[in-house]
Amino acid sequence: MGTKFFKIAVVYLVIGVSIGYIMGITHNFSYTSVHTHVNLLGWASMALFGLIYHFYPKAGETKLAKTHFWLHNIGTPFLTAGVFLIVFLDNDTLTVLPSLVQILS
Question: Cα(101)–Cα(105) distance, rounded to whole angstroms?
Fold first, then answer.
């Protein structure tokens, strides 16, 4: 399970670094939050999970580890796509916290 997480983490590293290079070349840093979410959730978190499952192989053999792998790999693109849409559309209605504040007030 550790190698699966680490291989996917490298894919997210390439995506995150590419976004960073594009922002640096164009001097348009409006997608910084997308870049950081891809790097943190994709590269850093998955690489850390991969290391943990590598050093504790019995933990990686469980059904919970497989569920963890798939839920994280399904959730990360949705979260980063949501952050991209918030920045691209310049609209905070997709965020949860301001919507809850409006409902409660």
Answer: 6
